Amino acid sequence: MADNDKANGAGTAMLAFLIGxxxxxVVALLYAPASGEEVREFIGDKAxxxxxxxxxxxxxxxxxxxxxxxxxxxxxx
Length: 77
Description:
Elements: H1 2-31, H2 36-76
Helix pairs in contact: 1-2
């Protein structure tokens, strides 16, 4: 049960981090005036960064789930 709790906690932490990053980006846009081109470039950069982080979080999540599954399978044998 503890491994499952760790997997859930890791996923929750990563989701909270991503939401915080998105909120921070929006606040930065609202309080730092820039030209339309600069804002579009900033949004594109943050979107690419968010996609990269989401892919990494998914990879880590799959690894954690795989570990938990393999341990559970080994304990049943």
